[in-house]
Amino acid sequence: MDIATLEPCPWDVARQLAHNCIKKLYMTREYSDTKSVLALLSKDAGRARDEVRHYGRFRAEYFPTGTNERAAWSAYAVICLYAIHQKGNSKCMDSGDQSFAFACSMAKLVQAGLSKNGMAMRMSNIISRKKDKGFLTYLRKAIPLLSQKGIPVNYGMLAADLYSRNSSANIRKINERWEMQFFSRFNSQDETIAQ
Fold it and tell me: What's the rounded Cα separation, in Å, for the pair 50 and 113?
């Protein structure tokens, strides 16, 4: 089999869609059309697939025809979170850096002065959600904190993780990685986080 003809993994498609769309939105953020798109996206942030109003139109305009449905939805869901995150920030709140995986960014909130126990409880609430709806709702509640402190998130990784949350085994693997990314930031410090 020729490696050049292999299709990318759907979770990687979600990652690429999220980064590419966010880059486009950020580069054109001063245009009135982009501002209205971001406003519409922020209204869909944290909502379940059957509750969003602008997905079909956004998908038709921004995603290639034939894109895997779950990859497109995963990218759209995190782009909506980005729309909230970017509001009021001049630098791009999407980072391609792995050190800004969602859980790592949440740990940076503690480093920025927020309560360790409060952030640990928030992360536990996010991680404990099994369904996309509750998961997205709790992610949406965390985004304003990251926005206020100007801490970016790797939205491509978040889209890939959301895509991969399609089975109990995958959810468990993602949760274990997020717990390690978040809590390992505090293992070398004197204070511990109550879990």
Answer: 37
Give the pTM.
0.89
65-95 burial, b if ≥16 CB within 10 A, otherwise e?
eebbebbbbbbbbbbbbbbbbbeeeeebbbb
Given the candidates 3.30.1330.30, 4.10.1110.10, 3.40.50.300, 1.10.520.40, the CATH classification of the domain at 9-183 is 1.10.520.40
Q: What is the DSSP string of 26-77?
A: HHTTTSHHHHHHHHHHHHHTT--GGG-SSHHHHHHHHS-TT--HHHHHHHHH
Give 94's strand partners. Answer: 153
Q: What is the pLDDT of residues 64-120, one digit of tens each?
A: 999 999 999 999 999 999 999 999 899 999 999 999 999 999 999 998 999 999 999
* Extents of the domains making up the chain: 9-183
Convert 136-152 to b/e letters by CB count within 10 Å (16 or more is b).
bbbbbebbebbbeeebb
Q: Which residue has the tokens 């965390």?
A: 142
